[in-house]
Amino acid sequence: AQSVTQLGSHVSVSEGALVLLRCNYSSSVPPYLFWYVQYPNQGLQLLLKYTSAATLVKGINGFEAEFKKSETSFHLTKPSAHMSDAAEYFCAVSDFTGNQFYFGTGTSLTVIP
Amino acid sequence: EAGVTQSPTHLIKTRGQQATLRCSPISGHTSVYWYQQALGLGLQFLLWYDEGEERNRGNFPPRFSGRQFPNYSSELNVNALELEDSALYLCASSLLAGTDTQYFGPGTRLTVL
User: Fold this and answer.
1) Which residues of B touch A46 (CB under 8 A)?
2) Alpha-carbon distance A47 to A60, whole Å?
3) Distance between CA atoms of A34 and A46, rounded to whole angstroms?
4) Least crowded by CB within 10 Å, which of A76, B17, B66, B70?
5) Residues 6 or more apart from A93 whose CB is under 8 A from it?
6) Which of A37-51, B33-47, B67-81 has the largest mean confidence?
7) 3-class DSSP state for residue A85?
8) What is the mean pLDDT of chain A?
């Protein structure tokens, strides 16, 4: 079975600093990988998606993620944090059977002014 | 284009009662997914419907059930409510079954007293 591990349930960064949210997956074959963002009292919004094309995936709001097969990682980054980036971020994986999405437990990002 | 909609926004029930939650997918999407987001537990996969059939279910007791209608809308039923069923219930839809991107609704907040 697939699994997703998000290291750090809470991450704090200063406004303008680099954002790095970590995600590692377990899979015997390259999966489809996703990052979603959830603002308070809202549903999840897709940030970006990896589907075995380019290993560096660019998403919305200046976020990007790099698929590293050797490290089974799909970390999310943004060069300069903005106050509006404060939210909960979820990494998810889907295998080729597509029977199920597996979500990480989420990372809460706080941006300090 | 309208997104995924869910109703009601909030639902308050007492232990032992039944709850019915509803979801309308994005037009043209045939797959509907249900997730439970309880405080501190991340997203837990509940059910997946595609073309009117239940395709997969997560590790939840049988009192969690649902169905998908011919217009692809879906409802989630929770019988014999327990206090720990209090959570945000999220519905998502996708154009293709399985590995395709899931688009989420705003959720239904269920409170069991």
Assistant:
1) 101-103
2) 6
3) 7
4) B70
5) A2, A3, A4, A25, A27, A31, A32, A33, A34, A101, A102
6) B67-81
7) helix
8) 89
